[in-house]
């Protein structure tokens, strides 16, 4: 059994070793600090007293010392005299000299065995050993095959990163123990140990692909860091992280949040509803972002994790039920306090999880402490916002009504429980300050300190500024998000938003058997809205998100931040535009739009004209969404055309300039009061289609034709004997057994 140490785990791969002809053991250290630690360990420790010294200078040295501990503890307990150990640095001249000395000794032994037992017997043993070595190498390649596949897939989708290192999570698992780190270069650092980690129970990879038993789920397991920054490198698990089932269940609640929040904002399109929508949706987005971040950071896959998700979902549900009446002018109807209460319950629960993780996984204690501090600062501002009232409400409490001198009615302030109370504007400042802390400061500040210290780290520790040294020690192990998981979850959320816009244009006819009434302006606006959503889906997933050379998250910290916050702006703006579009579809202000062609439910939702607020929601929302999509595209680095050495017809800045011009037109359309609802939707759809067509043309290669002509030829070569054998075997052919020329096709008939 492996034993735990103070670092929270043991190294995944021990320092290599070999024996010299005189009996000395040579231990090969990979880093200079490891070599010094191992020399001190072996020079000062008795044979059967290897566990009484647990001091190390750095986590890497602690890893090497722990390895030396285990090697010494595994030595023969009956050995009575000190083992002569020599520690060398990997690749040094001393390392090469000792290897050659051992090689010459064993070559001489082999020659002696050939002379004693005969060349034939020794050669047969050598042949058997060579076959065994070849089989072991193939097994080793199978172990790292997953790492290579995932690494290549990650590089092809999100760009190459020379600082990325992968480790196989199945390496060196024994006695049910699993560590959270490793290295592809054979050396790794300890991150965490999961005492309950069962074989084949890794996150997102059921069964682990091995030959063990079925999946088992534990009540509680120590969290394991999936990927992290350390020593200037990004270390990540080789197994691909897949979306968990409870994450998809978590998204189901956001379907309701988007619909309820968007529909209510469009019912009364004014500044008050815009404020309420922005604040409440940003709060919901923060909870979603926290959940995705924690799931991406740590692997547990136990019952406790699922219960934690259920608690957060319950808190989010309570928050959702108090969204619509938040910021209500009447304090008796205002649900802002309840809204903040459920939000803080979710945030403080996440902070408690981070505090527990800091205790269980000490190596990421710095980042967990920063997360807890950010939650507490934001919580203080939220609590303060609950207790802030307007000046009018403050005067209403505890002050008597003053009668005017002429004996008329009083014009003093209303009671805080009355229906005409002033809107609590003083609360807004604290609310946006709290949102800034939660959305920006709590996540950006640790990253900024980490990158600032890394840039000022010198080759010699003495030359590094003292503050940078302290920050480096505090954030020595910095958890990183899984790029595949984050992109997939964000794409899923964008799909929910686009789906809301598609559902919003659906209405019901009440025309009966009159076919002419079915093809009306309502249907025309719905089809145009559908085309518009299709265009935005095409732009987001295939134009902006396709053909990436380097993804924004992998490109730099600035581009990753731009990508993250642009998504929030895009989603909020597009939800407002989609909500306004759902109202525009049933507006009866144009020709061929009879109100009696709609069912009673949609007649109640219909309006005789388009209000200015609805125009602003729709036009400015579309313009802001398209502008945010341009920022998302700007954050990525895209590949050129597939033709070697070719360039796009227009560079990216020209394509983005076209988007900017279209956004300006979108913004100005809100002032075009002469356009009815059909003209407004048709104009915005035409501009969206122009943007897509311009992008497709500008990204193409000038030397390539936009149309591909000619016909595709299909051939099927199969001999009569092969066909007869395939028929006798019920048409089943072993593809692996076919030659290269045989893998074409099988005739359906002769």
From TrEMBL:
Residues 118-145 form a coiled coil. The chain crosses the membrane at residues 309-328, 340-361, 368-389, 428-450, 492-511, 517-541, 562-581, 615-635. Keywords: Coiled coil, Membrane, Transmembrane, Transmembrane helix. It comes from the Eukaryota. The keyword DNA damage does not apply. Signal peptide: none annotated. PANTHER family: BLL5714 PROTEIN. This is Low temperature requirement A. The lineage of its organism: Eukaryota, Fungi, Dikarya, Ascomycota, Pezizomycotina.
């Amino acid at each position: 059994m492996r034993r735990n140490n103070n670092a929270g785990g043991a190294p995944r791969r021990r320092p290599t070793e070999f024996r010299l002809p005189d009996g000395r053991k040579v231990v090969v250290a990979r880093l200079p600090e490891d070599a010094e630690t191992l020399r001190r360990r072996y020079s000062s420790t008795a044979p059967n007293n290897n566990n009484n010294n647990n001091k190390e200078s750095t986590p890497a040295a602690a890893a090497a010392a722990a390895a030396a501990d285990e090697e010494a503890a595994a030595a023969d307990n009956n050995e009575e005299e000190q083992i002569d150990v020599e520690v060398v640095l990997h690749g040094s001249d001393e390392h090469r000299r000792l290897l050659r000395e051992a090689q010459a000794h064993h070559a001489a032994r082999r020659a002696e065995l050939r002379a004693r037992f005969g060349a034939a017997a020794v050669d047969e043993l050598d042949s058997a050993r060579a076959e065994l070595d070849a089989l072991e190498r193939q097994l080793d390649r199978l172990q790292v095959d997953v790492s290579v596949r995932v690494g290549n897939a990650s590089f092809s989708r999100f760009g190459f990163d020379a600082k990325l290192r992968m480790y196989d999570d199945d390496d060196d698992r024994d006695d049910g123990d699993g560590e959270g780190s490793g290295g592809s270069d054979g050396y790794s650092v300890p991150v965490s140990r999961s005492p309950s980690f069962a074989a084949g129970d890794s996150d997102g990879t059921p069964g682990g692909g091995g030959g063990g038993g079925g999946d088992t789920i534990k009540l509680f397991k120590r969290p394991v860091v999936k990927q992290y920054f350390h020593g200037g490198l990004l270390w990540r698990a080789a197994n691909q992280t897949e979306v968990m089932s409870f994450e998809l269940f978590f998204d189901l609640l956001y379907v309701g949040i988007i619909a309820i929040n968007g529909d209510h904002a469009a019912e009364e399109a004014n500044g008050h509803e815009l404020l309420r929508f922005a604040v409440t949706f940003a709060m919901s987005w923060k909870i979603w972002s926290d959940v995705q971040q924690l799931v991406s950071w740590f692997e547990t896959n136990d019952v406790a994790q699922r219960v934690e998700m259920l608690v957060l979902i319950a808190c989010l549900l309570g928050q959702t039920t108090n969204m619509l009446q938040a910021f209500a002018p009447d304090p008796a109807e205002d649900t802002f306090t309840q809204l903040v209460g459920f939000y803080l319950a979710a945030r403080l629960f996440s902070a408690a999880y981070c505090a527990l993780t800091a205790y269980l996984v000490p190596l990421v204690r710095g980042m967990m402490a920063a997360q807890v501090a950010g939650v507490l600062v934001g919580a203080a501002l939220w609590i303060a916002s609950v207790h802030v009232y307007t000046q009018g409400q403050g005067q209403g409490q505890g002050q008597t009504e003053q009668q005017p001198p002429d004996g008329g009615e009083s014009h003093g302030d209303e009671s805080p429980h009355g229906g005409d109370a002033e809107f609590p504007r003083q609360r807004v400042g604290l609310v946006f300050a709290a949102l800034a802390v939660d959305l920006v400061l709590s996540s950006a500040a640790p990253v900024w300190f980490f990158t600032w210290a890394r840039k000022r780290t010198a080759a010699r520790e003495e030359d590094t500024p003292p503050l940078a040294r302290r920050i480096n020690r505090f954030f020595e192990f910095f958890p990183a998000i899984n790029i595949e998981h984050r992109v997939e979850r964000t794409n899923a959320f964008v799909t929910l938003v686009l789906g809301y816009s598609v559902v919003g244009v659906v209405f019901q006819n009440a025309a009966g058997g009159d076919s002419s009434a079915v093809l009306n302006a309502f249907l025309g606006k719905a089809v145009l809205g559908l085309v518009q959503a299709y265009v935005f889906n095409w732009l987001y997933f295939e134009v902006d998100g396709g053909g990436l050379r380097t993804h924004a998250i992998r490109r730099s910290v600035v581009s990753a931040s731009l990508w993250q916050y642009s998504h929030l702006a895009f989603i909020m703006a597009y939800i407002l535009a989609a909500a306004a579009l759902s109202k525009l579809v049933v507006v009866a202000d144009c020709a061929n739009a009879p109100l009696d062609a709609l069912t009673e439910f949609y007649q109640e939702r219909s309006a005789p004209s388009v209000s200015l607020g609805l125009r602003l929601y729709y036009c400015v929302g579309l313009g802001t969404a398209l502008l945010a999509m341009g920022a998302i595209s700007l954050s990525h680095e895209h590949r050129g055309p597939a033709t070697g050495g070719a360039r796009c017809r227009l560079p990216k800045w020209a394509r983005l300039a076209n988007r900017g011009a279209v956004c300006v037109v979108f913004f100005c359309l809100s002032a075009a009061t002469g356009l009815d609802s059909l003209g407004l939707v048709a104009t915005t759809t035409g501009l969206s289609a122009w943007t897509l067509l311009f992008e497709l043309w500008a990204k193409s290669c000038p030397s390539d034709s936009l149309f591909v002509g000619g016909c595709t030829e299909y051939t099927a070569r199969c001999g009569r004997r092969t066909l007869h054998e395939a028929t006798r075997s019920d048409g089943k052919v072993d593809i692996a057994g076919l030659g290269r020329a045989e893998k074409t096709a099988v005739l359906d008939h002769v």
